[in-house]
Design goal:
40% of the residues lie in helices and 4% in strands.
């Protein structure tokens, strides 16, 4: 099965379930009191995806706390999409292209790039000697994607995709993501991407760069996102 058929690319509860597997491989752990039992999921109308409740300290928490996803208003499944596009198609996908494909603002797209940069480079998906816009990973065509208005309909339809029917049909934005993956011609390395997700899920935003090792320094992140930043400034002009 194609990796982009994984539910965590389009379904928010599935994305949080995936992150929980990474953060809590042995089951949920209360981030307030450390309890591992008497923890339940908060369900019902209006409940946030992945929200847990500890019956011991009576506090709520999610697996995103302490990770680079904490405090982000971007749905987790879009973070996973961005991770795949940047790692599998880094030479052809800029922050501006993420803005179009993920249907987020320019500023948000650049923030996603800056947060993911160090981990993706550290995993070897992007060469540190190449700029963000020039790097072309193995298995991906080097051509750059043309801009597409965020409101334009995707050219990929359900009749073109020989997929199984999903319990809940993905949104149009997911089809735009799938179209981009197909246009790039990326090799779908499921094992490599799962390993990258593990690195990202365990990389905390509150860790000092000097304690992360040389691959996680801030200069590397700025180098990775520098060209994307200039493109956004040009687009906004």
């Amino acid at each position: 099965m194609s990796i982009i058929l994984k539910p965590y690319f389009w379904d928010e509860p599935a994305a949080h379930a995936k992150l929980e597997e990474i953060v809590w491989p042995n089951g949920p752990v209360c981030l307030h009191c450390g309890a591992t039992d008497r923890i339940g999921a908060v369900v019902g109308k209006g409940a946030r995806a992945g929200l847990k409740f500890c019956c011991r300290c009576r506090k709520q928490f999610r697996a995103t706390i302490g990770t680079m996803f904490e405090g982000s208003h971007v749905p987790l499944h879009k973070w996973f999409q961005a991770c795949f596009l940047l790692s599998a198609g880094g030479g052809a996908v800029s922050a501006y292209q993420l803005h179009l494909r993920l249907e987020v603002t320019n500023k948000t797209a650049l923030g996603i790039v800056q947060r993911l940069a160090a981990v993706i480079e550290g995993a070897g998906c992007i060469s540190p000697d190449d700029s963000f816009s020039r790097a072309a990973p193995v298995g991906c065509s080097r051509h750059r994607l043309r801009g597409q208005p965020a409101g334009a309909p995707s050219t990929v339809g359900w009749d073109e995709l020989p997929w199984v029917k999903f319990p809940t049909q993905p949104r149009r934005q997911y089809l735009r993501f799938a179209e981009t993956v197909r246009a790039l011609g990326c090799v779908e390395d499921e094992i490599g991407f799962e390993r990258l997700l593990t690195m990202i899920g365990t990389y905390g935003i509150d860790r000092a760069p000097e304690k992360q090792g040389p691959i996680f320094g801030l200069p590397r992140a700025h180098s990775f996102a520098g060209q994307a930043s200039r493109e956004l400034e040009h687009a906004a002009a």
